[in-house]
Amino acid sequence: MGHPDTQNFGRKFKPAFSGCSQHACGLTNLHDLGLIAEERVEDGKTKRGFQMFVGGGLGAVPYHAKLFDSFIPVEELLPLSQAIARVFARLGEKKNRNRARIKFLIQDLGIDKFKELVLEERKTLPFDPRWTGFIEEAEKFEETPLRPGGEWPFAPSEAFQRWLNTNTRAQKQPGYVVVTVALPLGDITANQLRSLADIVRRFTKETVRTTVEQNFVIRWVSQSDLPELYNALHTAGLGEPGAGAIVDIVTCPGTDTCKLGISSSRGLAGELRKRLLEKSFELDESVQHLHIKISGCFNSCGQHHVADLGFYGVSRKMAGFNVPHFQVVLGGEWEHNAGSYGLPVLAVPSKNIPQVVTRLTERYVADRTKGETFKDFVKRIGKVELKKALEDLARPPADPSDRSLFSDWGDPREYTLGDMGIGECAGEVVSAIDFELVAAEREVFEAQVALESGAVEPARKTAYLAMLHASKALVKLANPRVSDDPEEILREFRTRYYDTQKFWDPFAGGKFANYLFDAHQKRNEPHTPDYSRYLIDEAQLFLDAAHSFYGKLGTTITV
User: Fold this and answer.
1) Which of 213, 331, 509, 516 is least surrounded by CB atoms within 10 angstroms?
2) 277 Ramachandran zone, left/alpha/beta (phi>0; psi -120 to 50)
């Protein structure tokens, strides 16, 4: 837009507002600037303001926003935001697009130093009447309904009652509700959009908005209008129940249209939705409101990091073939504005993911304590135990003629055949590189377990070694005599794969290799728990990239 405070941003800067801290709302923890509405009583007067968070983001490696201030008065909202923008514009990364977000600047500076710089910048800003000019007008703003509030309706059918249970919630104004229009896979046709516009005009003063879960919400609906509204939505094909429930799966476009897609996120989401709907009446109440989110690659466009059950697409080899897989991500929390981020547990063939969902939900129902959330259940049971319960689903089929795992959901084609080398033994050829990459992936998981037990430094060291061991495995493809010396491994890896751009993602460039180089450079420095957490994510992404790179090669070393 040419504004001097934002023109020099290295990349985008996304603010988000939330009316409360306990629900998902605006997902302030995963935005560059997150603001949660807050009220305080000072000298007997109620003051409005915000909790301010900075530096959040998902993407390949998710960052939790840091608390900048527990309360800023509303009149300080714009000047402080402007000061933050100026510091980011001045000090943020400009050359490396992969690090040109404010979360990396805050990681490098630390939140205390960043806050110090922002407050210094704030002092230099000349007063602008626009900082506070909007407040009086904003406080006068008031939405009004089209129709008077009404009584809760009698439900003449089971379908209508199910829809009422899942797709409506009371407004704080008596007699009115908020209605959620659930969109399976986030899809809506042009004709349905026109119908929705007509429906909204008919029942409200056009108070409709989108949600962070790919749905629409209609506010200020009179309770007495709910039967008519439901019938109108149903006629337009928009009367699906299950909004916010386990069947309301969020997914990115995946391999359907996105060039980054590795596995079919929409295909998997459609299959899971179909199966869950078929047994929706059997699902335990504790499972009904879990969140499933799916991304076709590592970038978290489907928000897999903050789901109860998160999945992102990767590729793995089985018997010399590339097979579509999904990493299973556990430990995320959707509530509390994306309160915690999950970590990958293991990669499972795409066709086995429905069984993953069944096993994990059944285990949750059987072993949870009263009132225990899924995130707390995962933490108590432990990811080691849960991984054991899923490991058989990650193995190749016992019958070599079974080709069911070699195609993705919604796509009958098999993945590209990988050329197999001829081994010296008479049995099946098994790649030594496969063994070493799997061993490295096991180290990443061990690092995650160490971090969750509070062993920060062992976690960091193990994650670094996992990347080093994986890079050595790849170097051995070209130089079987490479030593264990880290300097030699990195020199060989850089010369053979990085400088030649062979280990480059077509869209991410050399980002994944840089994770290795950066970890090696910082291996002897003191580190924070946050750094170890980020490094584990980076190590897993490096391993995913190593698997993908190896899958594209036609040469194997056999044992």
Assistant:
1) 509
2) alpha
CA 202 to chain centre: 37
Sign (positive or negative) of CA dihedral 200, 203, 204, 208: negative
Would you give the DSSP letter of residue 348? E
Strand-pairing partners, residue 17, are 35
Calpha distance 332→342 (Å, rounded): 4
Give the separation between CA 159 and CA 268, rounded to whole angstroms: 26
Residue range 15-140, CATH number: 3.30.413.10
Task: Catalogue the E-assigned strands of 199-291.
Answer: 208-210, 216-222, 250-251
Whether residue 413 is predicted with pLDDT greater than 80 in this model: the reply is no
Architecture of domain 158-235: 2-Layer Sandwich (3.30)
pLDDT of 452-486, one tens digit each? 999 999 999 999 999 999 999 999 988 989 999 99
Measured between alpha carbons, how far is 183 from 103 in angstroms, rounded to an integer? 32
Specify the DSSP element, H or E, that contains 354: helix 353-367
Angle at 111 between CA 87 and CA 8, to 5 degrees: 20
Amino acid at 331: G
User: What is the band of 430 on the pLDDT scale with cuts at 50, 70, 90?
Assistant: very low
| Residue 341 half-sphere exposure toward CB, CA atoms < 13 A | 24
Tell me the DSSP string of 20-66: -SSS-TT-GGGSSEEEEEEEEEETTEEEEEEEEEE--B-SSS-BPPE
pLDDT digits 0-9 by tens, 105-128: 999 999 999 999 999 999 999 999
What does the pLDDT look like over 131-143, one tens digit per residue?
Answer: 999 898 888 898 9
C-alpha separations of 25 from 17, 83, 176, 336, 447 in Å: 8, 26, 19, 8, 32
Domain ranges for the chain? 15-140, 158-235, 421-559
Q: pTM to 2 decimals?
A: 0.87
Q: Report the alpha-carbon distance of residue 434 to residue 398 in Å, rounded.
A: 18
Strands (E), 319-423: 321-330, 343-349, 407-408, 411-414
Please report the beta strands in 56-201, taking only residues with DSSP state E, as ranges in sequence order: 66-73, 168-170, 176-181
